[in-house]
What we know:
Layout: H1 3-17, H2 38-57, H3 74-83, H4 87-107, H5 132-139, H6 143-164
Helix pairs in contact: 1-2, 1-4, 1-6, 2-4, 3-4
The protein binds zinc ion.
Amino acid sequence: MLFATHLLVAAGIGWLSGRPRGVSGLRGTPAFPPALSTGWLVAGAALSDVVDKPLGALGVFDVYQSVGHSALLLPLAAAVVVKHRHGLALAVGWGSHLALDALHMTVNGRAGDALFLAWPVLTRSDPLAIPPGEFALFYAGSPSFFLEAALWLAAIVVALRSRFGVGAARKSGR
Ligand SMILES: [Zn+2]
């Protein structure tokens, strides 16, 4: 998935974690402070690409999804959850990045590429390995690209609803 969409989804998880439970959500009730820190969620979601894209660009590894995308780091993530106050948010953000990348490959008919999750134990025989800039051009118009577009559209609708009270909130008389 595109880098910005990873950050968007992480921010969305933060927003969802701060919503009141039950029917009162989006009805003009003040939002609770997020249960998971949005900043740490976004940092966790950024981490994989911030680490792996430079490693790929510098030729350290021949793929753009390596150490930061490996689910084998799960024990390390668990340790961070235990040790750090915002470790859970960081780990959830990181996990969402891995899940979305695997989802995008599956949606685009490259489910085998999701083997990146087991790097370096398992490696793909024919990795895509396209540099990030070129990748965006390659990616535009693919099924997963439209899935991302739908996510952005949903985020815009939610943002408009909460900012301008479009829809249900208007009935509350504000
Ligand atoms: Zn990624």
